[in-house]
């Protein structure tokens, strides 16, 4: 709900206002609330006199300054209309774009996603005025400019903000780059010292990469680099703002990242097969592993998803080969398309690195949704909004972790409890103190020293599988001692031991004229026509990915309406 009539209207003699502008705003609210118009008799810095716009009406208000101070006070007020009427239409001449900006300004502080069409609805509900959409849009622009300043100047303010962040948050890294010819903004990289230290001491060597569109006037792309904490929550490590998602921008972002993380950690990157990532990751981190998000692969594949899941989730090479063989029975082209899509970058059985069972880039997607409001702000305000969100999140998680009494993080504790239930009834044969044979429908071998099991569950997920749990119980040891240190509660606390400090004590530069701006805003290219919202389909062979499956005979290439085959018998 917007401002109330009576809380923001003139109402009596001797009512005081902070300045003359506040009086004018409340006068306008009063006129709109009572459906009449007025005109100024006198209107200057020390006094304001208004009367009803109907010449024969006696309504009149006089307000003047109190002494030499800034306050204004109503001195005389005839609050009776003798004109006998008001404005009979659903509009109002005083409902200007400036007025819309004034009544919605506080709303935008709490709700940056407040839309013009919502303004139209709220103004009609609260004031009974049918506001044109264009006036609501301009009012929003005025309110945002009053709150955040000129968006074009925001790029130049990156200079002092970068210095402020590195001065107030030791260990932070901010890299700003402009075009050498005309000093236009090109890209910026931001990472705070507390999260850099937290990633090194408390997070797995695994990073999620993704880009998302910005929705401010000058648009752009935010490239996010997200880690994962021991409790399976996302841990924002760094981000950059660029003009487009290209190989050059990803390579520049990853080069900045390489300068802030330890060189002796072999990182696993998880991302979609987006623009520039396929070549940027191996060029900047040649010793790293690159996993492709399974969700994006499935969006291109469309059919035979159960067999694709079997190939991706299978832990052993035999499981992968079995899934591909079954797929080949249905479609040779589909099986060939899967084998040609670099399965060593997404299949558990073939992936050479450690990714702790992560097949999707959901962490980066969650971060993009988390900063949805910030993506609508000017660049400096957006970066600072993200900083505040990260600061509050670290404080909250630090306090929550201080109350944990479990050895492992809560989400990991739940997984291990399920493993302990699942290992009951397994027969364990001892070879020595470290090697064990687990009897069952398919026997498995466990090596506690190397933390390996032939089912490959321990190697893939970083947690003891049910076979390893049975072996550990056999020798009366603690299962928790064989979990990766990244899942310990103490490691989680180390990740959030640091704090992102406020950036408020820095003297912000005064507003400058556009001609004296050192860093100018980038050129924004908007393609003509209506914006496309439907995802562009894969350019792969359509015959390999668009097989229709009949629900009647379970065959491929047709549906039940055109089916001429016998009904499939349920097995």
Automatic annotation (TrEMBL):
<dbReference type="InterPro" id="IPR006564">
    <property type="entry name" value="Znf_PMZ"/>
</dbReference>
<dbReference type="GO" id="GO:0008270">
    <property type="term" value="F:zinc ion binding"/>
</dbReference>
<dbReference type="Pfam" id="PF04434">
    <property type="entry name" value="SWIM"/>
</dbReference>
<dbReference type="InterPro" id="IPR018289">
    <property type="entry name" value="MULE_transposase_dom"/>
</dbReference>
<dbReference type="Pfam" id="PF10551">
    <property type="entry name" value="MULE"/>
</dbReference>
<feature type="domain" description="SWIM-type">
    <location>
        <begin position="444"/>
        <end position="476"/>
    </location>
</feature>
<keyword id="KW-0862">Zinc</keyword>
<keyword id="KW-0863">Zinc-finger</keyword>
<protein>
    <recommendedName>
        <fullName>SWIM-type domain-containing protein</fullName>
    </recommendedName>
</protein>
<dbReference type="Pfam" id="PF03108">
    <property type="entry name" value="DBD_Tnp_Mut"/>
</dbReference>
<dbReference type="InterPro" id="IPR004332">
    <property type="entry name" value="Transposase_MuDR"/>
</dbReference>
<dbReference type="InterPro" id="IPR007527">
    <property type="entry name" value="Znf_SWIM"/>
</dbReference>
<keyword id="KW-0479">Metal-binding</keyword>
